Amino acid sequence: MQNAGFIFASYILTIGSVLLFAVVTLRRAKESAKIVEDKHKPWI
Known about the structure:
Layout: H1 4-35
């Protein structure tokens, strides 16, 4: 149990990093979608 704090902090840091990356990526994608013309959006 001596390393429990380190383990929990590692999990929190990892999950926080992944969530931050996802938010930043989605925000950039949303901004880019406004700039790109519809003919260059194959998902539409």
